[in-house]
Design goal:
Mean pLDDT: 91
Order of helices and strands: HHHHHHHHHHH
Strand content: under 5%
Shape: elongated
Low-confidence stretches: none
Distance between the termini: 37 Å
Radius of gyration: 19 Å
């Protein structure tokens, strides 16, 4: 592995586990058994590392978000897609667990994060439109906009809520739990089949987390 990639991998691990505020470039170099000078040859401090990690996150999540258009036509597809999306967010979770403070310190990243939010909103809207065209849900435009906002909020702040609540849930179980919560919000718009679909989702969730 190239030195640059090793630095980013180690920084991401430290930031995810302990938060980026309490970590310095020297801490990262020490974990790598590397001189600070060698690290600074590749990155001019922690700020540059954070921006490089955001570059990686942005590239990867946009691939996922752009891949949803016109391809989510069933409840099963929606479950799998949402899991993949949340799994990607979890891999870069330090961005989300201290989101407000981090974006305040990095205004350039705040602008880019807002663009990601717009892309996430568009992906959610596309999925709901697809489910409606497939006659799996029926919802008026006003409620569609509100539901989109609810799903976007969960997809953005689920990790902060988990951190505040202080639960000790495994990563996989936490992601499945959040997917289940998001999917359950769609159930009221499924008509008579809603309760059947909810039971199917509940059975899947219990198997996945059991």
């Amino acid at each position: 592995m190239k030195t640059r990639d090793r630095i980013l991998e180690t920084a991401l691990l430290l930031f995810n586990e302990d938060g980026e505020v309490d970590q310095s470039a020297v801490d990262i170099a020490n974990v790598l058994d590397m001189s600070p000078g060698n690290l600074y040859y590749h990155f001019k401090g922690k700020d540059a590392i954070i921006r490089a990690l955001f570059d990686d996150f942005e590239e990867e999540i946009l691939v996922i978000l752009n891949g949803s258009k016109g391809r989510i036509t069933s409840i099963e597809d929606n479950w799998v897609y949402t899991y993949i999306l949340l799994e990607e967010i979890y891999d870069f979770r330090f961005f989300y667990r201290n989101l407000g403070a981090l974006l305040e310190r990095y205004p350039d990243l705040a602008r880019r994060f807002r663009r990601l939010l717009s892309a996430k909103r568009a992906a959610i809207s596309d999925i709901l439109d697809g489910l409606q065209k497939s006659e799996l849900i029926s919802i008026n435009p006003l409620l569609m906009a509100m539901l989109t906002d609810q799903l976007l909020n969960i997809a953005t702040f689920w990790l902060s809520f988990e951190q505040i609540e202080g639960t000790d849930t495994s990563p996989s179980d936490l992601i499945h739990k959040t997917v289940y919560q998001m999917m359950a919000l769609v159930v009221p718009y499924m008509g008579e089949q809603g309760l059947v679909v909810l039971q199917t989702m509940t059975d899947h969730y219990e198997r996945a987390t059991g």
